[in-house]
What does this fold into?
Amino acid sequence: LPGKDKYLAGGVRAPHGCIYFAPYNAGRVLRIDADGNVDLVGPEIPGSKKYFGGGALAPNGCIYFAPYSAGAQQVLCIDAAGNIELVGPTILGSHKYFAGGVVARNGCVYFAPSFARQVLLIDA
It folds into this structure.
């Protein structure tokens, strides 16, 4: 895996045993399966400085990563089957969400803002 600062956000283990890392400067999500096999999955996500803070595993089985800088403008979602997509509205700006997500008792995922103007709430 050539390059630097490819994956900075902490990984999250899905219920099926795979561990997922959101790309920072890399182009795709990094997946490590339960047998230790490593591959790049999902669509190419262009740009740099995309996802910095750790993701959160929601009660619905999805893993969510909040966008960090201008390279990412939507939430990265990895569903329970391992499908990867960008979801939600466009969130403009840079250094939006630095901290990792937390799942509250109500099942919602919260990301504290860094330069963003509000808390990011994902009603999972």
